[in-house]
Amino acid sequence: MNAHPTLIAVGDNCLDAYLTKGFVTVGGNALNVAVQWKRRGYNARYFGALGRDEEAEIMLAAIEQAGLERTDVEIAAGSSAVTLLRDDAGERRFLLESLGVGANFFPKCEYYDELLKADWVHLGTNANESLVRKLVTDGVKFSVDLSTRHLDLPLDNVPLVFASGPDDPGEPVKPLIERFKQAGAQQVVITCGKRGSFYDNGSELFSASSVPVSVVDTCGAGDSFIATFLASRFVEGQAEAASLRLSAIRASETCTHLGGFPQEIMPIPQWLLEKYDGVVRTAQRD
What we know:
9-stranded mixed sheet, globular, 9 helices, single chain, 5-stranded mixed sheet
């Protein structure tokens, strides 16, 4: 790694509308990771796509406010990603998930060239399969968040994967890690909610407990974990266990505020409620 490493997150973004609470937040795994890097003082960039719509204007404003370049975001014909959800006693219930023009995102040539020069690249959830294979072929140092879609992507020679695992202490994690390694992943991180996290560096397994906190919103906690782990382990060179512990701390901090990163919380625009009137009416009846 050089003295001023460049970290690039690629892929998903989303405008989350909490119908039961009346506000929207900006997020998405890849975008959240890039913002967390930027907040910690790293040279971070975010590559993704938005539609030509009002949702995009809200998201671009948040991206700029976070210190990222809006010119790194491609604007395409179609809709931006939107999630409509309700929060019932702290449990998020997804009513609509529209991936928009960012689905299966592959950066244009000039942006892909930037990935070749980056010190680390992170691909968000729903990563483009062709992009994964090309990064492997080109020897790029990168990670991908599989979330709960564990084996949807080809993992042969992928440097590092993140995935959600069982939060039940009685369910072993090692078999899941071994499945990823057998599929070709070189290193694996499994996050298991309150149970904690596990990291297999290819030859040894490490673990760390979660950090108890008074939860306001769990959205983006896993993304903060990812951003912190990548920076502490692969940029700063911290030891495995120390990286896991610091990542757990940062994830817990994210749970203490609304949204995946500190941002201006906006009321749901009337035009958005009208646009998804059918879903809104169904939510109100439930």
